[in-house]
Specification:
Elements: H1 6-31, E1 40-45, E2 52-55, H2 59-65, E3 70-76, H3 80-86, E4 90-97, E5 100-106, E6 114-116, E7 119-121, E8 123-127, E9 131-136
Antiparallel strand pairs: 1-2, 1-3, 3-9, 4-5, 5-8, 6-7, 8-9
Helix pairs in contact: 1-2
Length: 143
């Protein structure tokens, strides 16, 4: 039986530690919240308008431990232009209901979207006078 030297064993340990570190980093990056903190951060479990909605004070920890189908955040004031620019998002279509303008967009920086009106939407901004709600792929339920 051939003996492995301590240098080789050390290098093998460093390689294994590096691989584990890369895997954990990838997991952590996937768990990062999509949006900057706002007044309320919510996650959706399920892919329909009746999806279970959970709010969290610790979005990173929540995404790290729970499976989510989407997320949203509520901000005070009108923030559509800022969000569209931050995500380099292309405006697909809009609709206005009850004083709230809904902007449906596609961003190359966000994940998969859903098909609405024959296009792929992965960013939804609902902007009123007093607040803006942002969600991906869309805002599920009410806002």
């Amino acid at each position: 039986m051939r003996k492995i030297g301590w240098k080789r064993a050390f290098c093998d340990m460093i390689a294994v530690a590096g691989s584990i570190s890369c895997a954990l980093s990838a997991l952590a990056l996937d768990a990062l919240p999509c949006f900057p903190r706002g007044e309320e951060y919510a996650f959706y479990a399920g892919a329909s308008s009746s999806a279970r909605r959970e709010t969290s004070e610790a979005p990173f920890a929540y995404k790290l431990t729970e499976l989510t189908a989407g997320e949203s955040v509520r901000y005070s004031g009108q923030r559509y232009a800022e969000i569209a620019e931050r995500f380099d998002a292309k405006l697909l279509f809009t609709e206005t209901v009850g004083g709230v303008t809904n902007y449906y967009l596609y961003s190359p920086f966000l994940g998969d979207g859903i098909a609405l009106n024959g296009v792929c939407v992965n960013l939804h901004v609902a902007a009123g006078r007093e607040e803006t709600v942002v969600g991906t792929p869309i805002i599920f339920g009410g806002y």
